[in-house]
Design goal:
alpha/beta; TIM Barrel; 5-stranded parallel beta sheet; 35% helix
Length: 159
């Protein structure tokens, strides 16, 4: 039997939304500084900051980042390893050394995540063991490794 619509017959589903933290990336304030990103994140009510390690010296200095975090009362949620074209010489040129340094920075700063990009096409040696290397590093720490795949990983089998 078809009944006419009635508010008493409508079931209401309650959606539970998990608490999700929202972080501001220091890259999003470019060309402003890392320090400016912390100030803006605190003023605008963000839960944390993702630090893009790049040519700004403060972004490379763990102690300076700790002071900014403490001063503004805002956590550092993630460290974005310097693995982009514009950061290819930041923290050296060895991609694994950069990840080790990013992991150490994240551990020191209480960040839960290290953000990394897959190897460039010309980084064949790095690409060959990228997945296994990331897995090994992840097994050594509570820090998570998040891979942002902005471009294809094609250096399989040395090609």
């Amino acid at each position: 039997m078809n009944r006419p619509w009635s508010p008493t017959l409508v079931a209401v589903a309650v959606v539970q939304v998990p608490d999700a933290k929202v972080a501001l990336s220091t890259a999003s304030v470019y060309p402003e500084s890392t320090a400016t990103a912390f100030e803006l994140a605190a003023r605008l009510g963000y839960d944390g900051v993702e630090v893009m390690v790049w040519t700004d010296p403060i972004s490379q200095d763990v102690e300076a980042l700790k002071r900014l975090s403490d001063y503004h009362g805002i956590e550092i949620s993630a460290i974005h390893a310097p693995c982009l074209i514009v950061t290819q010489r930041v923290w050296g040129t060895d991609p694994w050394a950069k990840l080790v340094k990013a992991q150490a920075a994240a551990e020191r700063l209480g960040a839960q995540t290290v953000v990394v990009h897959p190897p460039f096409r010309w980084q064949r040696d790095y690409a060959r063991d990228f997945i296994g290397g990331i897995q090994r590093m992840a097994n050594e720490t509570d820090v998570r490794f998040a891979v942002e795949n902005m471009f294809p990983l094609r250096a399989v089998d040395g090609r």
